[in-house]
Write a structure and sequence with these properties.
With 176 residues, the protein is mainly alpha-helical. Helix content is 41%, strand content 7%. The protein is elongated and about 70 Å long. The mean pLDDT is 72. Belongs to the cytochrome P450 family.
Length: 176
């Protein structure tokens, strides 16, 4: 390496300190911008969404890490308990928002709210990412388009998965 170059490969001229200061300023501004989005309720994916909400009308929830969201939190097999603790800590009585990467999620902790969501025609047919199809082999009830296939899946799950005997086997009591 020649002596004409500095450690950061900036030519050794009279302008090296100015260029370095400008680069540091740009890095600092980028850092501040990422963390400004990170502090938004729900995380980065919610901050970048096109949906306009009224001030104070945001769904409560954790912000997570920049770009990753809560992806690192879901490493255990007891994710449902983690989500329950998070909703209690954020005082999210009916809905909680968070992001995993650039994907937005809303969790319902209240059975009445979940029933309203599942029975609403607004949520009957929605766009699904191709990665979700690939991950679940094009066979998941949550991503199935509204129609005969979805009704069959719902009937099977109501009969077998959500029967009182099966719910009792999960060890879920009536109260929290």
């Amino acid at each position: 390496m020649s002596s004409a170059c500095s450690f950061l490969f900036i030519p050794s001229t009279g302008y090296s300190s100015t260029v370095l200061s400008f680069e540091l300023l740009l890095c600092f501004l980028l850092f501040v911008a990422v963390f400004a989005f990170w502090l938004r309720p729900g995380g980065l994916a919610w901050a970048l969404s096109k949906a306009q909400t009224r001030p104070g009308a945001a769904i409560p929830g954790p912000s997570g890490f920049p770009l990753l969201g809560l992806a690192l939190s879901f490493t255990s097999s007891l994710t449902h308990r983690l989500l329950s603790r998070l909703s209690e800590s954020f005082k999210a009585e009916s809905l909680m928002a968070f992001s995993v990467g650039f994907t937005r999620f809303i969790i319902s902790s209240n059975p009445e709210t979940a029933k309203e969501i599942l029975n609403s025609s607004a949520f009957a047919d929605r766009p699904v990412k191709e990665s979700a199809y690939g991950l679940l082999f094009h066979r998941a009830m949550g991503f199935a388009p509204y129609g005969e296939y979805w009704r069959n899946l719902r009937r099977i799950s109501a009969t077998h998965l959500f029967s009182p005997k099966r719910i009792a086997s999960f060890g879920i009591s009536g109260g929290r």
